[in-house]
Amino acid sequence: MQLSSRIRAIPEPAGNAWEIYERAQEMRTEGIDVTMLSIGDHDTITPEPIIAHMAGAARQGNTGYASVPGMAPLRAAIAERATLRTGAAAVAGNVFVTPGGQFALFEALMAVTDPGDKVVMIDPYYATYPITIRAAGAAPVIVKADPDNGFQPDLQDMAAKLPGCRALLLNTPNNPTGAVYSRDTLNAIAELCQAHDVWLISDEVYDGQIWEGEHLSPRGLPGMAERTIVIGSMSKSHIMTGFRLGWVLAPEQVVNAIWELAIATTYGVPGFIQEAACFALTEGDAIEAEATARYRSRRDLAVDVLRGANGLRLSAPQGAMYVMVDIRPTGLSGIAFARKLLEEHHIAVMPGEGFGQAAAGHLRVSLTLEDDALVAALRTLAGLAGALAV
Length: 390
Known about the structure:
The chain folds into 2 domains: 5-45 and 286-385, Aspartate Aminotransferase, domain 1; 48-284, Aspartate Aminotransferase, domain 2. It contains 13 helices and 14 strands. The protein has helices spanning 5-8, 19-29, 48-59, 72-86, 101-112, 129-135, 155-161, 183-195, 252-264, 271-283, 285-306, 334-345, 371-388; strands at 35-36, 95-98, 118-123, 139-146, 152-153, 167-171, 199-203, 228-233, 246-249, 313-314, 322-326, 347-348, 350-351, 362-366. Strand 10 (313-314) and strand 11 form a beta hairpin. The mean pLDDT is 95.
């Protein structure tokens, strides 16, 4: 018996982007102490007030089926947040609550693409983008962002590839590179989307983690609210990765369409988790501010340790919770270097090749360790790069 062509088309032809992470997990089960700087998960648990509010909501009876598009107070809180952060007015009807930002991305793609449609994405990209596009039946089209130009997108290449495409997937602040796209860049992208009648899917999960410049949502640009779908999440801002609480912010026609998809798939998000998210958005400004300050401090520490080190180059991240390290001076690929770092020094990072060809010869380092341990791991990484430099 053969599996469907749909499911067989999803995996990346280049291989498993999570190879190093999975090997690190195996080593841990073998009793080896591995320093994890691979995935973007926090090193602290969700703050107690959020956990307590979730538990209280469950004990008070919010354990049955929840409203599929999301409970009204939560949708309203997300809309208020979006109005402030995107600069374009939003109401609860523009919001659909999802089990995590990843499923929000899938729903957005399912809503605006047909099988065989093309979706432009910028390389480097978050590792799930191409497989999510293929899972929705569409085909990814690559626009490269040059690492020697701060990983900013090549607008001429984008202009050449957008005609005939249905959507553009954008991510700023960017995972994995930490690049924040400028107002001029986003204005140019908005003009291209309007000229070619393209939907813009804007992944803004890291909108609060800005270290240089400003976060600008394309939804707030002239003529863009009606063609922009914003992906949001509680995972990074409020240390709630395991809660799987995200959202789609979109024109109401999109929200109404994905309602049907949610009925056929997830049937909503548990009510007690929604109540915890609502509490976090309305009462948790201090929690978000503390998390943001922590990653800003770690970003500055990482830049201090790595900048000028022999055997590597560093483009200081402008946002997000990662540092992208260029180890091409060592003569090794990102995969080969990451394997060596893991096997010899028990430090796990993500090789750049898992994020696209523009990231080849790079490492994505998650800033998910307390300060002393992070500095020690980065110094080990820099020492290995220096020893291998050619």
